[in-house]
What we know:
Blueprint: H1 2-27, H2 32-36, H3 39-52, H4 54-70, H5 73-87
Amino acid sequence: MKYTIKVWFFTVIFSPLFLFLILGVFINSSKFSEILGSWLMIGFMMLYAMVLSIPTMILFWLIQRHLMKVFTIDKTKLILSAYSFISV
């Protein structure tokens, strides 16, 4: 469960930040301070992502629990990483 929560928090927290950085800096040529000035929207996006991704996190945890019975920890993490990449 620890690995599942780490992956989930990383996704929920860093995805909105990366989106704002890419859209702000590279597409709109905004200054970094302007991007950080929209912290309320970033926080809302993180909260929204957290709520909507709970079913996916539970499914991820169930898959991990099953894989841990069959494979080693390294192979399980590799399979889960591939699953995460494909499911996005």
